[in-house]
């Protein structure tokens, strides 16, 4: 009997398409960042705060991923940034083909940065390469200090972990130190930025690191 591993075939095909995306991004000199998190951790808010700080220096486009609605792409458009909404219906992640198809909605020439906000999900998006240069995870500290141990996949794969909503630490009783230690255990290499998108604390450190790590820009 021949057993076909459908999952690994899907992932292989996705990785092939992600390589195609990467070639396209390189052709246009576009630096691409994939933002991932559970729903509500603060991806769109972080994008808004980041865009407000750097849009004077870079030409930015945004791809938004959600199951339904254009709420997030409307938030980005309100900042005068071109934004395209992918609605996935029931699919819990963006894949390389969805991103490729979305690119037809942008004039890529002259763009510096593409931000992709993935579908809110703490697990699935980490498995799907999009051809991006940088993987950023946003984690809301109130989700609990033990989560990196219980859901290690995304923490393990990313270059940067933004620990958002530190303004809520006094109300939640979460230990930031314990959380950072748990992230470190799963991913010793990741850059970690404790921030509050609400008060602005820590945002400048993230922006400064990001600006210095935009390859070729
Ligand atoms: N207290 C607090 N709330 C935040 C912070 N960042 C985002 N939020 C709120 O968290 C909710 C979800 O944020 P959103 O950016 O839509 O999350 P997303 O689903 O990951 O895109 C919104 O009500 C935001 O105003 C923060 O740093 N502190
Ligand atoms: Mg969002």
What would you say this structure looks like, in words?
This protein has a seven-stranded parallel beta sheet with strand order 3-2-4-1-5-6-7, sandwiched between helices. With 217 residues, the chain is of the alpha/beta class. Helices cover 39% and strands 18% of the residues. The protein has a single domain, classed as P-loop containing nucleotide triphosphate hydrolases (Rossmann fold). Strand 2, helix 3 and strand 3 form a beta-alpha-beta unit. Helix 1 (6-27) packs parallel to helix 4 (96-103). The protein binds guanosine-5'-diphosphate and magnesium ion. Residues 43-44, 72, 117 line the site of magnesium ion.
Which molecules are bound besides the chains?
guanosine-5'-diphosphate, magnesium ion
Structural class, by secondary structure, is alpha/beta
Runs in which pLDDT lies below 50 for 5 or more consecutive residues are: none
Secondary-structure element order, N to C? HEHEHEHEEHHEHHEH
**Biggest pleated-sheet summary:** 7 strands, parallel
Strand order of the largest sheet: 3-2-4-1-5-6-7
Number of E-type strands = 7
How widely separated are the two ends? 52 Å
Strand content: 15-25%
What's the CATH H-level homologous superfamily? P-loop containing nucleotide triphosphate hydrolases
**What is the share of helical residues?**
25-40%
Average pLDDT over all residues: 96
């Amino acid at each position: 009997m021949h057993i076909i591993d459908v999952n690994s075939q899907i992932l292989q095909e996705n990785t092939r398409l992600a390589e195609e995306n990467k070639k396209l991004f390189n052709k246009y000199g576009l630096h691409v960042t994939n933002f991932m998190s559970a729903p509500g951790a603060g991806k769109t808010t972080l994008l808004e705060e980041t865009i407000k700080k750097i849009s004077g220096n870079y030409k930015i486009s945004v791809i938004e991923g959600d199951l339904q609605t254009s709420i997030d792409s409307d938030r980005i458009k309100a900042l005068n940034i071109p934004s395209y909404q992918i609605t996935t219906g029931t699919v819990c992640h963006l894949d390389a083909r969805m991103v490729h198809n979305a690119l037809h909605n942008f004039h890529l020439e002259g763009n510096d940065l593409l931000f992709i906000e993935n579908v809110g999900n703490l697990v699935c998006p980490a498995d799907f390469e999009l051809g991006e240069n940088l993987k950023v995870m946003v984690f809301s500290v109130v989700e609990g200090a033990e989560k990196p141990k219980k859901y290690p996949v995304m923490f393990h794969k990313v270059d940067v972990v933004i620990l958002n909503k530190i303004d809520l630490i006094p109300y939640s009783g979460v230990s930031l130190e314990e959380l950072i230690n748990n992230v470190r255990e799963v991913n010793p290499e990741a850059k970690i930025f404790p921030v509050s998108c609400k008060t602005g604390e820590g945002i400048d450190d993230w922006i400064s690191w990001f600006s210095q790590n935009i390859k070729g820009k």
